[in-house]
Amino acid sequence: MNDFRFALRQLRKSPGFTALAIITLALGIGVNSAIFALVNGVVLRPMVPLRPAEVVNIFTARQNTNHDYRQFSHTEYRDLRENGGDLFTHLAALEFAVAGIGRDHEMRRSFAFLTSENFFSLMGVQPLRGRFYTAEECRPNANVSVVVASYAFWKRMGGRNDFVGSNLQINGQPYTVIGITPDGFSGVSALVAPDIWLPLGVHSHLGSAFADSESLHDLAEPKNYALNLTARLRPGLTIETAKARVAPLTQRFNAIQPSNAEGARDLQLHEPSRFSISTSPEDDGPVTLIGTLLMGMAGAVLLIASLNLANMLLARGTARSKEIALRLAVGASRWRIVRQLLCEGLLLAICGGLVGLVISVWCNDLLLHSLARLLGSTSFSFVVKLRPDLTVLGVTFLFCLIATLLFSLGPALKATRADLVSDLKQQIGEPARIGRFNRFFAARHISVMAQIALSFMLLFSAGLFFRGALKASGLNPGFVAAGDLVTEMDFSLIKKDPAEARRLIFEAVRRARDLPGVRTAALGTMLPYGNFTNSRRIMSMRETLPSDPKAPDPGAGALFTATTPGYFDAIGVKLLRGRDFTQAEAETKNTPRVAIIDDEMAKKIFPNMEAVGQHIRYTQPPKDGSPNDLLVVGVVSGHRHDVQNDTLNRRLFVPLAQGYNGNVYLHVRLATKDRRAVAAFIPTMRQTLRTIDPDLPILSIEPFVDLTEKSVGLWIVRLGALLFGVFGAIALLLAVVGVYGVKAYAVACRTREIGIRMALGAHRRDIFALIMRQGAIQTALAVTIGLLFSLAAGRVLARILYQVSPSDPFALVISGALLTAAAMLACFFPARRATHVEPLKALRTE
Amino acid sequence: MQQMITTSLTSNQPAQTSATNGSTPLIRLTDLSKIFITDEVETHAVSGVHLDVRDGEYVSIAGPSGCGKTTLLSILGLLDTPSEGSYELKGTEVANLSFADRARIRNREIGFIFQSFNLIGDLTVYENVELPLTYRGSSANERKSAVMGALERVGMIHRARHLPGQLSGGQQQRVAVARALAGKPAILLADEPTGNLDSRNGEAVMDLLKELHGAGATICMVTHDERFARHAERAVHLLDGQIVEDRLAA
Question: Is A675 left (phi over 0), alpha (psi -120 to 50) or beta?
Fold first, then answer.
């Protein structure tokens, strides 16, 4: 305790040093704390409250392949649940859906999960209030209108005590709230959570967001593959041992398939993905890699800060050498002094850590705010919590301890290795060291060179991400967003009869086309750069599914969009060959099946032949039994769906009537491309749509350019640039302060030498050159080492970089030049000060 | 060549030596003063000094601590500027030169020998001796020849590659003398050159200076040790910043 009291007194005695040290540490620890809170919230925090390692997702793919995934029917689910007892203690079903909550204009589209009754017990959660639904309520077509609200939704609705028992209007029908889930429970994703949980028994009331059919609302229908399965393994089983024992269950699964099923299927067990809600297995590797990289880069910032502070403490140790020598002279043990100095370091680190924690909370709040703005228009509730919990606080304290050891142990050991006689005489200056080599590679210079090298690596990484962000922003998406006003509507939320909904849609398109200033208008069921995708796998009719399960798959995955005529014109995509859909094809379901594909898809499934006039089919036949034979009537130019995929996504388009799912995007191409003029058109658009039907389920009307800016992919690329940019900027700042501090200290130590040189006739320019030359050589050496670090970092970053070479010469040159210039500027001021040394005064310095 | 001089015993009288051969003195100080002002207190470190030093002379400046002898030497070495009066070196007024001009003259005309040697610890003996020539812009060959010649004169050529830390105090001072000599300066200024040495090494250094003087060097040495002051041919005694005695050695 005495050590801490003395440490406090010492730090109070030099407020300037203390403030600088705390700021330096606050930056280093703050960055680490912020990134750890992010990584903890997104990557580490278990999303399953009870024994998360036991929970697996079950998928089915065509036998011995990793494609043709489909969901499960209720029959399959029931059979697996009843017969999977050897492997699972629980097996639950869930379906992803969107639902309109509220009435009329106040309706909000929300993400909803339909689950079996055992889903909550599988996850190990109890209701915060009320109850969860029963097995009877989950029976297919039970249609008991009960709902469980998420904690976030309950809070958003006012957090009333009488919320349980109240009624919610969901898709136009009243549902009774029977319970509330605990705070933070998201079910299957670490990022987003549904607003409401519904029993499977209301399936036919809602329709699924991920299904495209207006039929098959009956969950009991054997070919209604709507359910995702998740299970808890029996105690003692791991996912690997369970995989080895899944064969009997697979056999049984194949035995219950309908007689006309195409080929045998596998059951696959996978760890649940933390980040994507998908009907096929997803790899979390890239996000985990990003988390690891962020922690690595933040660690580098802490190392730089610690090296910086170590230098300050080395200088302070030299200044305090007399005091330390005196303590040793009167009998203090070396350990006692080291302990004292470590206490000072720990106190600094804790103060820095506290300030850093405040900075991290502030930064993460900004991040969440930005994310909330981004996701404001979507139907998700974002569940990531970045407020420091006990884990974050504990790890921040660990950062403090690491920093203390890094920055204060070396200087403490050095300061206590005293030359008592010399130190008691308080000889100021460089310790008696032999040779220029040793001075050049003195601890403080090595430390500052390490700072420069690490800063170079961080700046270079930031440069790569900035280049990626610039490329992503300036990317040609293959469509023309400027001048396009997009209206999103979701007819599934108001339970309109599909025929009536389609009539309204076509009326809306026609009215929009007739508006003055509108060039064309059309509608599609998926939005390029949007946050949802809908895909199908197709193949040429000329090919057959191979009987050998190991044979390469003949088909190709495609993003699936149902459109009205004029869609390609409206979004600025070129029709390369063939024709667009006709109005009749778009409006009538029973016309011959036709399709348009993009040239990427044409090259893939019809290499070396004209695609127009060929026939294609889905590898998974339509659930509604409609003909699985589509005539390709046109080929359009390829266009992107997001900024992250290096290759263009292949696309398949069908007429609206053949792929309508309720959620549609009306594209209105105006005569102008000016964003403000497009935005000014919104009231006209809204008014026009309201005159068709005041209850049209309009979710948003926005210029397409604004929507592409809200693309999650673009946000992630920009966030990467921002985070790495912040690391780089902090590292640069710390390195510059470090170089300046070391050079200023070195000049102070060399005052006498400078005086001697001046006495011997050195001019000011000679002294200036002397200091700058040493700084330049050290900087050059550090930049060379930093170059190697950077190239190594680039190789690791290559997996997540966007269209940038991991050894991008532009980023290398810019970051190297920036760092060199900053380091030389940091040398400049001490060098200039050195030229003003008075030789007479300097020579008196003994 | 020894010159006959006359002296004045009071500082407020002209104390200039008058050479029998009547040539221009190497150094001429006329009514030179140095005043330090701190916290409204004026300290007259050197006051109204008149002094001529002729080419080839060996002058010792002695006096008690604080009498102004080091200040006087600093002014002579152009490390400091006088507050009043005139300083002519080789007939040129140098009292109020710019920083750069003073650096140039220090480099070419003056060789310093300091009490604490003032060698640079990171440089070898050779590099230390070479240092003033580097600032002069001499070619490498010229530098090498001058450095080796100077080291030979002080008997330290065998230590050329050593660092100062590897030498004894006496050896370090010999290196400092070699450094002062290497540029062939007009005058050697020695500030207590034996102050950090034991008596044996002190004597050795004094012998070296005497030997250099014998070879024609002009030396101006500050010392408070009467034993060493006697090595010079002329003794100037300072008290409270004024020359109180200027006499030829016995």
Answer: alpha
Tokens of B239: 């008290």
Are residues A839 and B79, on separate chains, in Cβ contact within 8 Å?
A: yes
Provide the chain A residues 823-842 that lie in CB contact (below 8 A) with chain B.
839-840
Counting Cβ atoms within 10 Å, is residue A470 exposed (0-12), middle (13-18) or buried (19+)? middle
Which among A342, A209, A356 has a CA at the least distance from the CA of A278? A209
- Cα torsion A149, A150, A151, A154 to 10°: value is -40
Check if the beta carbon of residue A207 is closer than 8 Å to that of residue A99. no
Q: Beta strand A146-149 with A167-170: parallel, antiparallel or unpaired?
A: unpaired
How high is the ipTM of this complex? 0.81
Structure tokens belonging to residue A760? 């011997």
Q: Do A839 and B179 touch (CB under 8 A)?
A: no
CA A599 – CA A576 distance, rounded (Å): 8
Q: Which residues lie across from B32 on neighbouring strands?
A: B49
Query: Do the Cβ atoms of B135 and A766 come within 8 Å?
Result: yes
Q: Which of residues 68-127 of B touch A (CB under 8 A)?
A: 74, 77, 79-80, 99-100, 103-104, 106-108, 112, 114, 116, 118-123
Interface test with B, best of A760, A764, A836 (most B CBs within 10 A): A760
DSSP state of A227: B
What tens digit of pLDDT does each residue of A802-843 get?
678 888 899 899 999 988 998 899 889 989 988 988 888 777
Q: Is A364:A37 a contact under the CB 8 Å cutoff?
A: yes
Whether A311 contacts A741, CB under 8 Å: yes
For strands A594-598 and A630-636, give the pairing.
parallel
- Residue B2's pLDDT is 36
Which tops the pLDDT comparison, A741 or A148?
A148
**Which of B90, B184, B68, B167 lies closest to B132, judged by CA?**
B184
Give just the sign of the alpha carbon dihedral A221, A224, A225, A229. Answer: negative
CB A53 within 8 A of CB A80: no
Tell me the residues of chain B between 182 and 221 that have a Cβ less than 8 Å away from chain A: 183
Interchain CB contact of A296 with B (< 8 Å): no
| Residues A323-342 pLDDT 10s | 777 777 777 778 888 888 88
SS3 A758: helix
Contact between A662 and A500 under an 8 Å Cβ cutoff? The reply is no
User: Which candidate from B80, B135, B163 shows the least CB-CB separation from A760?
Assistant: B135
Residue A234: both structure tokens together = 């029996």
Q: Which residues of A touch B120 (CB under 8 A)?
A: 753, 756-757
pLDDT in tens, B112-133: 998 888 888 888 999 999 999 9
- Calpha distance A589→A657 (Å, rounded): 5
3 state DSSP class of A731: helix
The label of the residue with tokens 């403090």 reads A400
Q: What is the 3-state secondary structure (H, E, C) of A55-103?
A: EEEEEEEECCCCCCCECECHHHHHHHHHHCCCCEEEEEEEEEEEEEECC
CA atoms of B133 and B140, how far apart (whole Å): 9
Output the 3-class SS for chain B.
CCCCCCCCCCCCCCCCCCCCCCCCCCEEEEEEEEEEEECCEEEEEEEEEEEEECCCCEEEEECCCCCCHHHHHHHHCCCCCCCEEEEEECCEECCCCCHHHHHHHHHHHEEEECCCCCCCCCCCHHHHHHHHHHHHCCCHHHHHHHHHHHHHHHCCHHHCCCCHHHCCHHHHHHHHHHHHHHCCCCEEEEECCCCCCCHHHHHHHHHHHHHHHHCCCCEEEECCCHHHHCCCCEEEEEECCEEEEEEECC
First to last CA, chain B: 16
CB B70 within 8 Å of CB B36: no
